[in-house]
Amino acid sequence: MATFAKLSLGSKVISVHSVANEVATTEQTAIDFLHNLHNYPFWKQTSYNTHGGVHQLNGTPFRKNHAGIGYTYDEDRDAFIPPSPFPSWTLDEATCLWEAPTPRPDGDYAWNEETQAWDLIDG
Description:
Blueprint: E1 2-7, E2 13-19, H1 27-38, E3 43-46, E4 50-51, E5 54-55, E6 72-74, E7 79-81, E8 90-92, E9 97-99, E10 109-112, E11 117-120
Antiparallel strand pairs: 1-2, 1-3, 4-5, 6-7, 8-9, 10-11
């Protein structure tokens, strides 16, 4: 199966659809199929096995990250970028993932935006 992100006019992912490999012989043939099926023109292929610019099955990474609802497709980077979890986090250009201002310590921690620090989760 090939996977495709349906994009809004602002390049936000609004849904993700699968297309049989027999139909998705190329990205464009699959986009044409989806356009005809949904009467909607804006689609981009995404790779279920790609995360942070790495293909999880040692294949070729594709568009940095598998698209999810709320992600943005960045045409200049040719990448799907998840929403920023916090205003203080910055985008890693190599992975197109968001990074905290300080590395997460080992263990069960959650980011505290107010203190700009990792808080140990009691449990």
